[in-house]
Design a protein that fits this description.
Helix content is 44%, strand content 18%. The chain has helices at 37-40, 47-58, 69-95; strands at 10-15, 18-22, 30-34, 43-44. The protein starts with 9 loop residues before the first strand and ends with a helix.
Length: 98
């Protein structure tokens, strides 16, 4: 029987580069994502990342900068947040005549 898949949601954690992302297959489980870890590749508390990806990164093998789906969701949420911030700043500057 296939696992039920849910949309993953991301929310900021304790700083702009750390996010909490829900699991796709287990919506009651949350993973902590640090976008700054491993030189910007990111780190996730999920089993897939910790057991399959992180060991290679710790050994210095980048292997195409692999990322789990939680990191990708957090990166998208971070990017959306930054774009909204930049648009707001641009609108404020335009309103101020700069």
């Amino acid at each position: 029987m296939a696992a039920v898949q849910h949309d993953m949601e991301a929310r900021p954690h304790d700083n702009p580069l750390r996010w909490v992302v829900t699991s796709r297959s287990r919506p009651d489980v949350e993973h902590l994502v640090d976008l700054a870890a491993f030189g910007g590749i990111g780190n996730c508390s999920c089993e897939h990342f910790q057991f399959r990806i992180a060991p290679d990164l710790r050994d210095g093998r980048r292997l195409g900068a692999r990322r789990c789906s939680h990191i990708l969701v957090a990166r998208n949420a971070f990017t959306d947040q930054m774009i909204q911030t930049m648009v707001r700043i641009r609108e404020q500057r335009a309103a101020a005549g700069r």
